[in-house]
Cupin-like domain-containing protein (Erythrobacter mangrovi), 343 residues
Amino acid sequence: MAEADPSIFASMRHIEEREVADAAALSALLDETHGPFVVRGLVREWPLVQAGEESPSAARQYLLERARPVPFTVSLGQPGRDGRLFYDNDFGMNFQTAKGKLADIFRGFDDNEGRSDAPAIYLTSVDMRGFFHDLADENLSPVLDRKPLERIWIGNATRVAAHNDVPRNLACCAVGRRRFTVFPPEQYKNLYLGPLENTPAGRTVSMVDFHSPDFDAYPRFAEALDHAQVTELEPGDAIYIPSMWWHHVEALDPFNILVNYWWRDTPAFLGHPQEALNHAILALRDLPDAEKAIWRDLFDHYVFDAGPEVTEHIPESARGILSRLTPETAGQIRAFLLRTLNR
């Protein structure tokens, strides 16, 4: 994979590094910290990390021995595309997906080892417990108390455009090196985001090529860079990315494995904010300006401010969904939305 212009990263502030003694200390740090941070060597003792230190083939063998006999989905890029998983010129994807046995997919890594024009090969967000036996228990989550989603990402030298995630994220570098470039949530205006519904991996992404940014086409990206932070992870290191922080991810070696943990601190019965945004585009965005202004005030009143004046004049027993939501009242909203959206 071609190297990025080093001047892009040279002036960036490095992501803060923190030390933790144990899982309890990490949990406390997560509760008190609002920005990203790096913990060096957090998962250095994982068997997967140790296998990768021996060799990439040893790491692959370690995974093969634990793989369940199910088809794996793999993304395959075109040779010579610099590992960037992105759009093609017609806003389709510049990669294809296929299914196959993990052993066959891993042979693709062997066959392309040492090729400067190797196609991107990437297994993304694989459920560790659903696709492997014993893997998650042998390489134990540092945030198991948060009941996270446990995912593994396996690939060669690839680049994933800047995007964000709603859950909080602890990403652990298991094999190979990874560079993370992160931006605060409010920098979305300077990252030149692409389509909402047509994306490489489910989240809208920055259109800027970080290896060769076009400041004529994307002049506000210079402002985003003023707020960027960067780190390079070695095997065993971990990075915490708060909810909604933008992150551009580069796998720097010919074979790389990342394990990440996603969790939210809100009850599982609450809806997904992205769905609300999509619904608002459907229902509100194209209204006349005067009507949108009225609805903006109502959203502030009922959603974003939601002060005591919303309900203090209503008997508590009659407040319904205006009270703090419960599984029952959340279910009522879902049922209402299903009825109205399907009519």
